[in-house]
Amino acid sequence: MKIAVIGTGYVGLVTGTCLAETGNEVTCVDIVEEKVNKMRNGEMPIYEPGLDILFLRNIKQERLTFTTDLAEAIAPAKVIFLALPTPPGADGAADLSYVLGAAKDIAKLITEYKVIVTKSTVPVGTADKVTAVMKANTDVPFAVVSNPEFLREGVAVEDFMKPDRVVIGTRDEKARQVMGDLYAPYVRQGNPILYMDERSSELTKYAANSFLATKITFMNEIANMCELVGADVDMVRKGVGADARIGKRFLFPGVGYGGSCFPKDVQALSKAAEENKYDFKILNSVMEVNETQKKRLVVKMREYYGEGGLKGKHFALWGLAFKPETDDIREAPALYIIDELLAAGATVTAYDPEGMPNVKKLLGDKIGYATNRYNALEEADALLIVTEWPVFRTPDFDFMKEKLKSPVIFDGRNLYDLDRMKDHGFYYNSIGRKTVA
Ligand code: NAD
């Protein structure tokens, strides 16, 4: 099938590449010329494990091409995917200007039936809005499909190639068939393609992300309780996770959720509720708790160093990306922690396996950047762990003690065993567990 994908970010590039991998001919469009030129030369604009192999293979075999020219991409395409940003607007609601703008441009260019698919996360009613914008600009027949994306950055290729489910929201029979054919190779193990109306499909994505954000936030609150009552959140987590109704996954407490999706999607669903005169109380609490949780490590540090005690201190920080295996730093808790520390008069040297170039663009020389995890520790009064990259899991603790000015670790991801940290002689303060002093 001939396909156009508009927008080549984390979702668009993965979608385009993975659709090419099953034999489709895909043209990806982006407005950033430099990015398109890079991709044409086989350079990946993002870090996503495993994507490079598929990306290069499909470019080489001429199933994956890139352009800045929308007309060139959509002319042959049967299906047009919109993988455009939907950032929060000033009021917290999703900004649909990218999606609706593209719909208008596409409408003006099409000369035959096309299936227009919104892959972006969009509020309920967007398919209707896209349809209206298109109808106002063309008489050519088309169908609009809501097909939300559930991939996780870091394991995006696996998630796309073997999704837990595919959600297809359309009431257009022809589009339903096309989408079913397109996705059939990805659900051969028997995972479902769920067909529904556009509105249910649009809400499914927000419901999924908001539920996950709520699950994490609930565990963060349990962790905070654990600290107050002397329980160990690792034990509690295992105890509750063993219940099949709850499940083991997504129960790890930490320094709050971040990334380009959870914060904006929770906010957008809460806003959509408000617009429908519904007070979505849980979501409002989730957002409030997460704001506090992002600064949890700094609160712990203030308690340890005393009032004004952060001033003049130097800290090493491991982990800038909002989660491991990505270079994405959008809404990363590390950025909030760095802000707080700098405002308190401390200095920071960070290390992240993939996130540093993006942070450099944002913060420049406001912080230092280390060439490896150990160099970051030089002259540091303490180490802060913010992202659970595998490389941080089994470091040489004795070497760390040599490098650090004092053997102090604030761990926002509970990477280490408490007894081991005691044996190694660290002060070790983590989330929802006893502090090793
Ligand atoms: P992104 O910011 O990484 O990428 C968007 C891309 O679109 C950029 O390359 C940008 O240059 C390009 N673009 C902007 N305007 C354009 C235009 N008019 N024509 C062509 N290209 C244009 O965004 P993303 O993370 O890929 O997210 C895209 C959508 O998918 C959002 O709605 C997001 O909520 C949703 N989503 C994201 C993820 C994720 O993990 N990142 C997962 C599921 C859903």
TrEMBL record:
Q: Which GO terms describe its molecular function?
A: NAD binding; UDP-glucose 6-dehydrogenase activity
Q: Which pathway, per its entry?
A: Nucleotide-sugar biosynthesis; UDP-alpha-D-glucuronate biosynthesis; UDP-alpha-D-glucuronate from UDP-alpha-D-glucose: step 1/1
Has the keyword Transport been applied to this entry? Answer: no
Binding-site list for substrate = F150, L151, R152, E153, K205, F250, L251, F252, P253, G254, G258, K323
EC number(s): the record gives 1.1.1.22
The Gene Ontology biological process annotation of the record reads:
polysaccharide biosynthetic process; UDP-glucuronate biosynthetic process
Out of the domains of life, which is the source? Bacteria
Enzymatic reactions: UDP-alpha-D-glucose + 2 NAD(+) + H2O = UDP-alpha-D-glucuronate + 2 NADH + 3 H(+)
The protein's UniProt keywords, in alphabetical order, are: NAD, Oxidoreductase
In terms of InterPro entries, this protein maps to:
6-PGluconate_DH-like_C_sf, NAD(P)-bd_dom_sf, UDP-Glc/GDP-Man, UDP-Glc/GDP-Man_DH_C, UDP-Glc/GDP-Man_DH_C_sf, UDP-Glc/GDP-Man_DH_dimer, UDP-Glc/GDP-Man_DH_N, UDPglc_DH_bac
Q: Where does NAD(+) bind?
A: D30, K35, T86, T121, E153, K264, R330
Give the positions the UniProt entry annotates as the active site. Answer: C261 (nucleophile)
Q: Which residues form the UDP-glucose/GDP-mannose dehydrogenase C-terminal domain?
A: 316-418
Homology family:
Belongs to the UDP-glucose/GDP-mannose dehydrogenase family.
Name it.
UDP-glucose 6-dehydrogenase
Q: Which organism is it from?
A: Mucilaginibacter rubeus
Upper classification of the source organism reads: Bacteria, Pseudomonadati, Bacteroidota, Sphingobacteriia, Sphingobacteriales
